[in-house]
Amino acid sequence: xxxxxxxxxxxxxxxxxxxxxxxxxxxxxxxxxxxxxxxxxxxxxxxxxxxxxxxxxxxxxxxxxxxxxxxxxxxxxxxxxxxxxxxxxxxxxxxxxxxxxxxxxxxxxxxxxxxxxxxxxxxxxxxxxxxxxxxxxxxxxxxxxxxxxxxxxxxxxxxxxxxxxxxxxxxxxxxxxxxxxxxxxxxxxxxxxxxxxxxxxxxxxxxxxxxxxxxxxxxxxxxxxxxxxxxxxxxxxxxxxxxxxxxxxxxxxxxxxxxxxxxxxxxxxxxxxxxxxxxxxxxxxxxxxxxxxxxxxxxxxxxxxxxxxxxxxxxxxxxxxxxxxxxxxxxxxxxxxxxxxxxxxxxxxxxxxxxxxxxxxxxxxxxxxxxxxxxxxxxxxxx
Length: 383
Description:
Elements: E1 2-7, H1 14-21, H2 32-40, E2 46-53, E3 60-70, E4 79-81, E5 94-95, H3 100-113, E6 119-126, H4 130-141, E7 147-158, H5 168-181, E8 186-189, H6 194-209, H7 212-216, H8 224-239, E9 243-250, E10 253-263, E11 266-274, H9 283-296, E12 303-305, H10 314-317, E13 320-330, H11 336-365, H12 370-373
Parallel strand pairs: 4-6, 11-12
Antiparallel strand pairs: 1-2, 2-3, 3-4, 3-5, 6-13, 7-12, 7-13, 8-9, 9-10, 10-11
Helix pairs in contact: 2-8, 3-4, 6-8
């Protein structure tokens, strides 16, 4: 029998979560320490749905779904967002596959009974996960039809497939590595000790702040609340061994940084930054390429999730794709106004973002250095 509790994140969930993460679908952004960091820093207001197998002694955690209570503006209807905080890139619940057809209906029933909002926004939901089919089926049984807003193909790599072994991209990576190596001693480090991770994360933050993101005001250091939260997020995940920062260095100086997160058998390439002074060597792409090799040489890692859109530079390195969808769901009667308002808002936002990206991509293609653009990310498609 499955029971569902709704509560704030708590440190006592660490051990049950680690047990669940080894056998369940992966989503590092649902890790209770990450969610607690968001709540404690007042970065987000989150409630956790916890599914327990009551037949086990003691009761065993078989499902976790962290949902953010979000209001766009004053007087705007409050809704639930399954990306539990900003800078999360996956909204799928973490569910033991043995219990998925029981847990998902139990989650929806618990939400319907609770005083929480009845409209659920599912952005960046894994459409290939067992939870997706279970969600569709559970909603149909409740007479609810989800509204699909977008569909996309996220770049991923797996141990057995999904990495380009040859072709022009691979050739250019070799050339860039050789050219960079001619300027000094090049190495890649990816220390996992918590103190080393925190120090390397500061290097990442500085690189990002020195990039176009710093100029445009979108770097993490551009906002004090954002910077405080992500420092705690990465630091506390690293205490569990679930975060690291890989650095590409030349003569000991970091010129690119890749923040990595881990959950079960999946690694997540969360954030990337590089020194624009070395852009002609494609340092971000070089680092991802080397990190990919390292991760798949590590026992237990089977998949790398790019946390990125299908037009990103990682799509040029990896051939693997995972279908992602954005859904809007009404889990119970009483949320019609919020549903209509959020549907209109998201459709308008998606249209404007698509228009912006097309204009920026057009401007980027008109730049003279076409060769560099084949592996470097365009600004609007970085994370």
